[in-house]
């Protein structure tokens, strides 16, 4: 445009009017072109801001800007279309700051109300995210945020220099992906999302200025804690694993693969196993190798070689088999056999073998695990091994409304109590059988409390040389030592 101005400013001796007209048209065209360039540059720069790509990207057309945060337009369905999730999972770079209305399980938690979460305490941190516990209107919950001191963000800063906001958004993309997936994949063994905050602006470090996801509060899993659980509680975990495997193989998004299927990705919420970290989850089975009719599945330990058929260019069943192998390795194969009732061991061994060899699909694993639970709940496993000698009944004296609280407690294997011998039983007969086989047991107290399977809790005692106390909720049985 400067060159046009220079030419037009030159002295014109002849046909001055024509030249002025030509110069005028040229200047107008130059100005118009310059304005278009400025507009394109502005849009390109603005697309790096939170939410700009959000509006222009067809993947995110279901979201809208409300005040200073992003919400989902379809507040009734609480769903993001499957194709959107597939793209989001395939390419995190397409993610911007967006979100959807959380279910009102506690209340509507958003950027405006997240500051009302009190009593915050640090729980754990990984390379990308940090988790805090908190209390919101008398409800305990967990808050997941970007770990600003984590490996991923710090590595990004070393690579990009001082561009903190870009690095923060890159790490926050994992939380955004989890928000979408947890709202799309609703299951009893997946963490419930109570709310979130996705601000339409830069990270400020203050309430309402951070990307955060608010969920149920769970207990982390560790190997020692798992092995100290009763077999009944570990059975519940294995049932949760089986249910989750089947759901992942048949989810609304298709067959899902847990690329990081480890205990660290799960928590316990009131004894129920819950998947708490899904940012490494992927959709779609891998494509078949060129010119081959089957796909080989590579495993880390190398002790097992698996193969699945190619169906329409896809390795059909790849994700399901890989999930089964990892679930067995990190959960079922060491949780289920330890402490299992003798009469249930054959079925337990069959289930463990299926995990190790991947000889069953997730549907059969779930069905057989449910059969195992039913046998345990119904007491069918007792029929073959139960002591039916009528003299056992005569060895115990029954005292209604009696208890020995805090007295004569002793430790026993697989106890539900940390300082006593507390076990669950199918009925009084099983309690008598247990006490009769235990030389340390001299009495037991039957409570009105039950476990998740509906079995009755019983406290076993090492003595009864003390007058019992009255308790309308318990019944005391004393072993007759004179027999």
Number of domains: 3
Mean pLDDT: 79
CATH overall fold name of the largest domain: Transferase(Phosphotransferase), domain 1
Kindly provide the radius of gyration, computed on alpha-carbon positions and rounded to a whole number of angstroms. 32 Å
How many angstroms does the end-to-end distance come to?
114 Å
Number of strands: 20
CATH-assigned homologous superfamily of the largest domain:
Transferase(Phosphotransferase) domain 1
User: Which CATH top level class of the largest domain fits?
Assistant: Mainly Alpha
Report strand order across the widest sheet: 3-4-5-7-6
Helix content: 25-40%
Question: How would you characterize the overall build of this protein?
Answer:
- There is one protein chain.
- Helix content is 36%, strand content 22%.
- The strands form six sheets. A five-stranded antiparallel beta sheet has the order 3-4-5-7-6, covered by helices on one side. Strands 16-20-18-19-17 form a five-stranded antiparallel beta sheet.
- It is of the alpha+beta class and 483 residues long.
- It has helices at 2-9, 16-46, 52-56, 82-90, 151-160, 164-184, 223-228, 231-249, 318-335, 345-357, 362-378, 382-385, 391-394, 428-437; strands spanning 63-66, 69-72, 118-125, 129-136, 139-146, 193-197, 212-215, 219-220, 256-258, 266-269, 272-275, 281-283, 294-297, 306-311, 314-315, 396-403, 421-425, 443-450, 456-461, 469-479.
- It folds into three domains: 107-217, 2-Layer Sandwich (Phosphorylase Kinase, domain 1); 223-378, Transferase(Phosphotransferase) domain 1 (Transferase(Phosphotransferase), domain 1, Orthogonal Bundle); 391-479, Hepatocyte Growth Factor.
